[in-house]
Amino acid sequence: MSVEQAPVQRADFDQVMVPNYSPAAFIPVRGEGSRVWDQSGRELIDFAGGIAVNALGHCHPALVKALTDQANTLWHVSNVFTNEPALRLAHKLVDATFADRAFFCNSGAEANEAAFKLARRVAHDRFGADKHEIIATVNSFHGRTLFTVSVGGQPKYSDGFGPKITGISHVPYNDLEALKAQISDKTCAVVIEPIQGESGVVPADLAYLQGARKLCDEHNALLIFDEVQTGVGRTGSLFAYQHYGVTPDILSSAKSLGGGFPIAAMLTTNALASHLAVGTHGTTYGGNPLGCAVAAAVLDVVNTPETLAGIKAKHTRFKSRLEKIGQETGLFSQVRGVGLLIGCVLSDAWKGKAKDVLNAAEKENVMVLQAGPDVVRFAPSLVIEDADIDEGLDRFERAVKQLAQA
C-alpha cells in the first residue's frame, strides 16, 4: 500500500530550508542515464553530473542492483564491527592504487579532515608539536568543516566563523618557486588538487607536482592529493596522480566514488596509517555496508581499460565541439581540463557571466555547472553515450548563440 505524498514545489524551499543554497527554479524528480526529468515532465540532458558525483549517470543498473541487494541484507552496524562490503571495497582500492590502507567516511570534507589530522599526527609523533604547518594553494577548495575550509584558499568561505585554525598558509597554484620559498622544517604537509576544480578547472603542470613531491621529501613533509573531484576515473585514469605519474603520501576520494551514494575514502601507506591508532579518529556512518557496496560496484564498472579509454575519447568529442562553439560565438577564450572534467574559460567580454550561461543552458534543457564566475564547467557521467553528448551540445550551442545575440 503506497502512502499518498503531500505535493511540494520549489517555493517550499524558501519556506522550510536554511537559505544557504539558491537552487534552480525546477525540481528534478527522475533520472536515467544522462537524462533527467523535472516535475512538469520536461527532459534535460545532464552535463553537471551532480557536481562530478554521478560517475555512471542516473540509476545505473549495476548500482541499483548493488544498493538493492545490500538494502535487503544489512544497512548499518557501526565501526564497533567491521562488515564485508567495507573490506571488499578496501581491497579494491588498495589493489588499484599506491595505498596499503583505507579509511572510509561520508564526504570529501571528511576525507580531507582525516588526511589533515593524519598529517599532523604523523609529524607530532615523529618530530614533535612544532612540525604542524600545512601549505595549501590559493583558490583551492577542500571542504566546509572549520579545518578544511581553513585549509582551502578561498577566504570568502572561511571568514565570519570565528578564529581560524592556525598553522596554515597559502601559495599560488602551479608556482613551484612560491612553494619552495614557503616550505620549511615546520611544514607537516603540502596539499594540492591535481586539477583545481571549484576555482576554474585548472590542471597542474607536471613539473609543479614533481617539484612538490621532491620538496616534501627534502623537508620530511607529506604530500596530500585532494582527488575528491578528480578521482575514480574522472581524468581517464583511475586517479589523477596516475595520469601525472606523481605519487602522494595521502589521497582523498569522494564524489564519484559512490556514484551518487554518500561515501568517501582516505588512502595512505602502512607506515603512515599506523599513526591513527585505535581511538584517534572515527566516524559513525563511515564504511557503512550500503555505501561500500555501491562504491565497489562503481569501481567494477569504471576501473576497466574500456571505460577509461572511453573517457579519453569522450573528452576529445566534448573539447573539439566546445572549441568550435567558442570560436563561432566568441564566448570562450580557452577550453581546458582532463578527461570528463572540462572548463570553458569565458572571454573578456563575458567575464563574470558563467551563471548567465548556466541559466541559458537550462532554458534549452541542458544542465551545466560553473566553476567560479568566469568558467563554465562540464562534469558528466563517465559512461555518457555519444548521442547524448552530441544532443546536449546541440542544445548548449543554441543557448550560447541566443545569449550572444541578446
TrEMBL record:
Binding site for N(2)-acetyl-L-ornithine: R144, T283
Details of cofactor binding: Binds 1 pyridoxal phosphate per subunit.
Pfam families associated with the record: Aminotran_3
Leading EC class: transferase
Its EC number(s): 2.6.1.11
Listed cofactors: pyridoxal 5'-phosphate
Subunit architecture: Homodimer.
Superkingdom of this protein's organism: Bacteria
Pathway entry: Amino-acid biosynthesis; L-arginine biosynthesis; N(2)-acetyl-L-ornithine from L-glutamate: step 4/4
Protein name (Swiss-Prot/TrEMBL): Acetylornithine aminotransferase
Note, other: May also have succinyldiaminopimelate aminotransferase activity, thus carrying out the corresponding step in lysine biosynthesis.
UniProt keyword annotations, A-Z: Amino-acid biosynthesis, Aminotransferase, Arginine biosynthesis, Cytoplasm, Pyridoxal phosphate, Transferase
Family: Belongs to the class-III pyridoxal-phosphate-dependent aminotransferase family. ArgD subfamily.
Subcellular location as annotated: Cytoplasm
